Amino acid sequence: MTVLDGKQIAKEIREKLADEIKELKQKGNTPGLAVILVGDHPASRSYVLAKERACKELGMHSVLKELPETISEGDLLNCIQSYNSDEQIDGILVQLPLPSHINESKIIEAIIPEKDVDGFHPINIGRMHAGDEHAFIPCTPLGILEMVKKTGEDISGKHVVVVGRSNLVGKPAGQLFLKENATVTYCHSKTKNLKEQTLQGDILIAAVGRPNIITEDMVRPGAVVIDVGVNRLESGKLCGDVDFEAIKSKAKHITPVPGGVGPMTITMLMNNTVLASKWRKKIKEVH
Ligand SMILES: Nc1nc2c(c(=O)[nH]1)N[C@@H](CN(C=O)c1ccc(C(=O)N[C@@H](CCC(=O)O)C(=O)O)cc1)CN2
Fold first, then answer.
1. Which residues form the Tetrahydrofolate dehydrogenase/cyclohydrolase catalytic domain (predicted)?
2. Would you say the CATH fold of 139-262 matches that of 28-112?
3. Is 28-112 CATH 1.10.3290.10?
4. Is the whole-model pTM more than 0.90?
5. Ligand 1: does its nearest atom lie under 6 Å from the Cβ of 99?
6. So which residues are the catalytic ones?
């Protein structure tokens, strides 16, 4: 069994990105990211600060816009518009979740698709489903795919079982593996006999957000187990969706929480911002 070290894989990707960014800067093209945080949710704040830090470490331009919890939808839309037309900004990200008085879809759709480095805009979702090479792929699913590829396991023809159907993780993760010629099964809260399904998984992706929902008897021996859950217990301890201790000897490869998929998310955001910068540069050269 191997424990997939998300921090190490992320570090290796960031080293390559740093070289690429250096070259881009020498050509006068500095990738820039704008991150918008609404309110003061502690976890969201720590994620946006980590995003800003990653930009700085890689030599990218970054702006962190902090807005009050009470901001109106109109003012938030205006803020997005200003970054849509800012030439120094290649990627725009609005940290989720948003306060309940703001329509999340409306906000995501206000970001121009060329700067939607989260890959949440319907145009990018459509491009991803169509297999368009210029689609931004959501960062967590992209990180998951990178980690599975890193194991050296052949994905083609494998049965991937995704537990969870969120727009952020579950749905796009299944699509990505489908594109790699896997057979994909989606499971969710209404799935009958979940265990029967998860036992089919050569690759099992748990993205539910419920501590230890995947128990040892639900995992096929030799499976690759990817845990996307980041659940904070009352004790303050972080815990995944997978019962790691019970499953680690049964799985061929498994991701821990913390230190598995999480660190990959921010690295893939950096990757998407570099892509955005390169794609936008090409568009400008054509016009
Ligand atoms: N606009 C977006 N909002 C949200 C996204 C997203 O991709 N775009 N994803 C999550 C939050 N997220 C990044 O934004 C994120 C979550 C977790 C981690 C991470 O590194 N987790 C660590 C544990 C961190 C801790 O101690 O709390 C780990 O798993 O090792 C990074 C980024 C929702 N919102």
1. 4-118
2. yes
3. no
4. yes
5. no
6. 51, 95, 118
Binding-site residue numbers are 164-166, 230
Cross-strand partners of 238: 232
CA of 259 to the centre of ligand 1 (A): 11
ipTM, 2 dp: 0.98
* Ligand 1 geometric centre to CA of 264 (Å): 9
Q: Cβ atoms within 10 A of the Cβ of 75, count? A: 11
- pLDDT tens by residue, 88-122: 999 999 999 999 999 999 999 999 999 999 999 99
- Please name the residue whose Cα sits nearest to atom 5 of ligand 1: 96
277 lines ligand 1 (CB under 6 A): no
pLDDT at 36 over 70: yes
Ligand 1 neighbour 140 (Cβ under 6 A): yes
Ligand 1 lined by 257 (C-beta under 6 Å): yes
Domain ranges of the chain: 28-112, 139-262
